[in-house]
Amino acid sequence: MDFAVVDLSRLQFALTALYHFLFVPLTLGLSFMLVIMESVYVMTGREIWRVTTRFWGKIFGINFVLGVATGLTMEFEFGTNWSYFSHYVGDVFGAPLAIEGLMAFFLEATFVGVMFFGWDRLSRLGHLVVTFMVALGTNLSALWILIANGWMQNPEGASFNPDTMRMEVSSFGSVLFNPIAQAKFVHTVSAGYVCASVVVLGVSAYYLLRGRFTEVARRSMTVAAAFGLASSLSVVVLGDESGYTLTDNQKMKLAAIEAAWHTAPAPAGLTLIGIPDLQAHTTRYKVEIPWVLGLIATRSLDRTVTGMSELVLRAQERITSGVVAYDAVQKLKADPNDRAARAQFELHRRDLGYALLLKRYVADPRQASPQLIASTAWDVVPEVPVMFWTFRVMAGIGFLMIALFATAFILCSLHRHMRTRWFLKLAVLAIPLPWIAIELGWILAELGRQPWAIDGVLPTFLAPSSLTPAALLTTIAGFTLLYGTMAVIEVRLILATIRHGPYEHEEDDTPQPGTGTPSAHPATA
Amino acid sequence: MFDYETLRLIWWVLIGVLLIGFALTDGFDLGTIALLPFVARTDVERRLVINSVAANWEGNQVWFILGGGAIFAAWPFVYAVSFSGFYLAMFVVLAALILRPVGFKYRSKRPDPAWRSRWDWALFTGGFVPALVFGVAVGNVLEGIPFRLDGDLRAFYEGSFLGLFTPFSLLAGLLSVAMLVLHGSAWIAIRVERGPVHDRARHFGTIAAIVSILLFTLGGVMAAQLGFRIVDAVDPAGPSNPLRTITIAQAGAWFDNYGRHPWMLIAPILGLGGAALALIGIRTKLEWAAFGGSSLSALGIIATVGLSMFPYILPSSIDARSSLTVWNASSSEKTLGIMLVVTAVLLPIVLAYTAWAFRVMWGRLSTEAVSAHPDYY
Q1: What gap in Å lies between CA A66 and CA A22, rounded to an integer?
Q2: Closest Cα partner for A468 from B78, B76, B156, B94?
């Protein structure tokens, strides 16, 4: 195993995925906000709502193309950079990706062109349906990719086939209705809705502070306040839901987030803050809220939250059992008709992945000593301080978002949102926050799964392609250069679009509602 | 429903359908923007060409993305081996394709001629480079790829980036460019008003049609030196494990199937006849005949590659026991079955709304319309 290749492959995937995910959340949320705004236009027939929809549509368009462009990389990156992963789980993991293409990408990509170019070719209702199809497509895409990702976190409905040396589907229903995938989907799209609401809220606040385009800005702000409040509540409440399922499937992730080194008596307290100490396996200076973690995670007062030390002991047992499965697979490789080996494999198949953890230290896991097995068991603990802190910052921002939108909602209800300048300033400053929370959430989910690419099945260090570090460095440099340039151009264009405002011509600034039809002007869109 | 052997055959055909769908739809987008700097000289001419594909290209591109996803789901070995083997070539293709969505959307955002000219060349790159590299990749597959699988079925690629460029693969690359440029020029002729752009597109289309015919014929002659053959018995319903098939290189083996099944000759005949029909259509200004001809030609050329190689998908040039075939590289029977049901339900719906989207945006573009309406790029 060349660990430079493993680390560089992980670095490239992290860079391209995190970059891709700068654009996706805004697409997810803004597409539905366009549907809301256009629905108001269709119902009221008031021109100002058409102007508003088209303006946010422009921002949507600039952002959308980069989501599409960087998504291309993602679709092929499993094959280019994670070819052993692709072979090992393609039978299961490939299906949701293919369905994503068929069900979601075609929908959003086919209708997005009609959405931008079809304003004058369709009836009002017809165009609204098109906009809705785009929103549906983007959100279905999130559903399928998170079913794939959820399966990596909780690989139900599949088992290893020694004849083909890979995981194969046993129950497609279990892959689809994986509780982790469902929780992830709701949590992720809600985060996207919050992101879009913050952008609409912040940009509208900027206009109101400047006294420009106030007709568009105050309407947009109302939509953002309502949509944002619902979404920010959903993202936190349903974030808890994904914490709840953690206790069944990913106790280790929860223990690492909480820096729970040992199983505490039930009901466990929630560590608000502290300094995890990796050497001493303890958390210093911790501020704890009694009972809360036990209540959230187990929904009970009497069940315990398992600590990391206890989970490591369990991993040690599973490695020992996995070595027996590994031995059987080697025998079956030599003779596929060896019945004794097949029976031996059936008994221990669930632990095969744990034996593969030993490949980091020995070529043949059967040669591992009990001491090596005991020390390797600690590999199942992810980076505790990273988990501990990313979670706290992410969750903190989540609560801030609720406060922000609750305030916005109250001010809008009282019709005071145009005059409360301190709030308008806060709303502008809040614009970067959802991105920070979202990227940290991604890091938390993916680092929390380490050392596994597929939880309990395939360690990350076995998953990459057989590439050279030079090839990887070339593409990392290439992507960085290309993506960096794109980011600069994108941000400039969005800022220019915001400065320019919703009308084709500057002189149309703040017209009376009902006028300002821009469609006849010979300008570039 | 179907047995494993039939499912594998169906999925081999379906991947062919996706690749042909990609060539027929996104193929004209690639060809059109590869021609952009040459058929259109002024800004308004270039906007004419760009807007002939602007509203529908994004849906067309999904054929390519879905091709990747479907190969992953149905042929995971092929997905794993080909994309990691062609690593740097894939990067070049992706980088070029990334320029397309950005180029289409961002070019019109500023009137500055230097800005627009840079995006025009970015769009040209996004059309020309993928067209070339796809062809080079197919050429390499026909020659055999230097990869081997170890006992855990981990793939190792032992070629280099420069090693991808052989005389045969370059010929295949140029054929791919000619084929898509022909298709693109036929598209421009349908969608753009008669005038200078239209005339130049027909001029380039004429050249592309002739080059397609010559290169496809020459490629056929050169392919007589290539081929692989399975030497032991094959179980078409056996487990997907390439190590259980033994292969030898055999010059001329790519023509074996035409001897056994002469009806397959219809594919190369379409490849040549389609290009000839396109040539006639272009010269006589029968634009639909030209587009139909370029479509048939692309269909015929791609089908020729698939049928010549059957049952091979990715032959290994260095290891007798690593080649991937229709019988040893697929997903499990269950996955192929489920994916077939999903495809049978969804693909007709996709085709229906795609047709609708083309109909809504249909019409011959004029400079007046493109100049007057703010929604055009």
Answers
A1: 9
A2: B156
Q: Read off the pLDDT band of A419 (50, 70, 90).
A: confident
Contact B65 A113 (CB under 8 A): no
Which residues on chain B are in Cβ contact (under 8 Å) with A525? 108, 374-377
Question: What is the rounded distance in angstroms from the CA atom of residue B198 to the CA atom of residue B49?
Answer: 10
Residues A206 and A203: their CA atoms lie apart, in Å, by 5
Higher-pLDDT residue of A464 and A508 is A464
Q: Give the pair of three-digit tokens for residue A135.
A: 């929103």
Would you call B98 and A73 a contact, using CB atoms and an 8 Å cutoff? yes
**CA gap A141, B239 in Å, rounded:** 32
The answer, yes or no, to whether residue A248 has pLDDT greater than 60, is no
Amino acid at A70: T
What letter represents residue A265's amino acid? P
Spacing of C-alpha B344 from chain mean position: 22
Closest partner CB to A69 (pick from B59, B91, B101)? B101
Residue numbers in A near B376 (CB within 8 A):
117, 524-525
Q: Which amino acid is at A388?
A: F
Q: Is residue A53 part of a domain?
A: yes
Helix (H) or strand (E) holding A284: strand A282-289
Cβ atoms of residues A510 and A45 within 8 Å: no
Q: Look at B106 and A493 and tell me if their CB atoms are within 8 Å.
A: yes
pLDDT at residue B371, rounded to an integer: 87
Strand extents, DSSP E, A173-267: none
CA closest to B97 among chain A residues: A69
Domain ranges of chain B: 4-224+331-372
Find the mean pLDDT for residues A411-433. 93
Residue A319 domain-assigned? no
Average pLDDT over residues B232-254: 91
Q: Can you point out the beta strands (E) in A33-93?
A: none
- Counted residue by residue, chain A has a size of 525
pLDDT given at position A522: 37
β-bridge partners, B148:
B156
Contact A91 B331 (CB under 8 A): yes
To probe the interface with A, which of B47, B52, B62 has the most A CB atoms within 10 Å? B62
Q: Which of B179, B159, B193 is nearest to B287 (CA)?
A: B193
Distances from the Cα of A504 to the Cαs of A141, A366, A509, A519, B235, in angstroms?
A: 33, 71, 9, 9, 66
Residue A87 forms part of a structural domain: yes
Instruction: Tell which residue, B257, B275, B255, has the closest CA to residue B210.
Output: B275
End-to-end CA distance of chain A: 52
Structure tokens at A163: 């004849």
Chain A residues within an 8 Å CB radius of B152:
165
Closest residue, chain A, to B147 (C-alpha): A466
Domain extent at residue A496: 3-252+382-503
| Residue of chain A minimizing CA distance to B341 | A99
Q: How many domains does chain A have?
A: 1
pLDDT digits (tens, 9 = 90+) for A296-344: 777 677 777 788 888 999 999 999 999 999 999 999 999 989 999 999 9
Task: Tokens for B201, please give them.
Answer: 């597109």
CB-nearest partner of B374 from A61, A100, A523 = A523
Closest approach of A228 to chain B, Cα-based (Å): 28
- Residue B238 DSSP symbol: S
The number of CA neighbours under 13 Å toward the Cβ of A134 is 32
In a domain, A523, yes or no: no
Cα angle value A183/A186/A187 (rounded, 5°): 80
CB contact under 8 A, B374 and A525: yes
Q: What is the pTM of this model?
A: 0.93
Nearby residues of B76 by Cβ (< 8 Å), 6 or more positions away: A86, A87, A90, A91, A94, A166, B329, B331
Question: What backbone torsions phi and psi does residue A102 show, to the nearest 5 degrees?
Answer: -70, -45
* Half-sphere exposure of residue B296: CA atoms within 13 angstroms, side-chain side: 20
